[in-house]
Amino acid sequence: MPALAAMSAPEFYTRVARLYDALARRGPGVDTLRRTLADALAPAPGATVVEFGCGTAANRPYLEERVGPDGSYVGVDFAPGVLRVARERGLARGAAGHLVRGDATRPPLRADAVDACCGAFVAGMLAEPAAAVREWAALVGSGGRIGLLDLARTSRRGWRALNPAFRLFVRAGSPPGTAGALDRSPAAVQDERVAAAHRALRAVCTGVDYRTVLGGFGRVSAGTVE
């Protein structure tokens, strides 16, 4: 196994997959965040929903609850380790679904097979998040649904005192070498990328539902592609 400092992002997330899964499922506020995304995306019963950057597929139960037994969930991630954990979770629940190794910026899917798509905590990892959102909009096509769930520093009075702790959280969760490769703090870059992704969603969608949760740290946007 490569030394931590020499790891690529997929290798890093593969190595920490079990820890990531524990935080993704039992971290403070995660149920609220994931339920808010599923409620805002609101895929129709029977729909096929794709989640980009699915990680260990912690969002899967919330989305499957929405699409029902006639719908299907497809998870896409670039790290094989988190996909292995996701498959184990799916088998334990008796849920088939589909888990695919792929790039969120180049969806490995047929456009005519997708009704809705979403990304959770992925926009801050993408060099060009707005371009990725436009790719997702093209994938689902006119009338399809897209949604985003992200974390960023808050501007809410009374909660801003937690921003320094949030900056440390972002740095700790970044692949090795991320901070040194940026000209600003990882949290500042994440804020910028999250804002760009949500602006792009508003530009390609109508009826956008935008919500902030958990003191303004959580940002959720969803809409229907024009």
From TrEMBL:
<dbReference type="InterPro" id="IPR029063">
    <property type="entry name" value="SAM-dependent_MTases_sf"/>
</dbReference>
<keyword id="KW-0808">Transferase</keyword>
<dbReference type="Pfam" id="PF08241">
    <property type="entry name" value="Methyltransf_11"/>
</dbReference>
<dbReference type="GO" id="GO:0032259">
    <property type="term" value="P:methylation"/>
</dbReference>
<feature type="domain" description="Methyltransferase type 11">
    <location>
        <begin position="51"/>
        <end position="146"/>
    </location>
</feature>
<dbReference type="InterPro" id="IPR013216">
    <property type="entry name" value="Methyltransf_11"/>
</dbReference>
<keyword id="KW-0489">Methyltransferase</keyword>
<protein>
    <submittedName>
        <fullName>Class I SAM-dependent methyltransferase</fullName>
        <ecNumber>2.1.1.-</ecNumber>
    </submittedName>
</protein>
<dbReference type="GO" id="GO:0008168">
    <property type="term" value="F:methyltransferase activity"/>
</dbReference>
